[in-house]
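Final report, closing paragraph on structural work. Over the funding period we assembled a curated collection of sequence-structure pairs, and we close with a single example.
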Amino acid sequence: MAELPRESLARSVAILEDDDTIRRAFVELIEAEPYFSLAGEAATLKQAAPFLQDPPDILLVDLMLPDGAAFDLIETLNAGGKTRIIVISVLGDERAVVAAFRAGACGYLLKGATGFELREAILQTLSGNAPISPSVARFLIKEFSGNSDQEDAVQASGLSPRERDVLHCLATGATDKETARRLGVSPYTVADHMRSVFRKLQVNTRAAAVARAMQAGDITLDLSGDSV
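Its predicted structure, as stored:
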């Protein structure tokens, strides 16, 4: 389970979703958590304009809205440096996933995620991790691996065996809690290992860490199937 922020430091969460039923479910989830505060809700890009004036800590956003795609909004908020964006979309194709992360999204979940999974995704994002549905993780790995310059390839990463194990689990889309269960350690230990991995590989996202580790030969993944 991701680390909880102190209640006195509740993080603001805004929601951009055009489906009334889904948006209401998100609102109820945020309002029920003492660790989050609802910064606003919107169903269109036009209604989301206030988010640009007063950026939230977290934005839950659907990609396709009635008045356009959300990529420009994601890019603008990301450039501001305060807001971390989690895409929650029915679009699970490679083009949409890669475009969202290029714009600045730091997490990507497919619609159908449970309330618990969404809550964990927000907490993971606040702690610096990147929640990614297993079915979209392969696209990011391919993108980072395929576009990395050869001179940036890591020849000697210095990752420990346990750090490689943790990274391999997370590369398949496993959450911190699932990784901890597989390896018989606590989620806090998983988070500590990932901070060390990021530092050693000089990256700040899981997809980039996986790509670097693959280049160094620390981990291997089958990218030919439907899942990593």
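The chain has two domains: 7-131, 146-215. The beta strands are 11-16, 36-42, 58-61, 64-65, 68-69, 84-89, 107-110. We thank the funder for supporting this effort.
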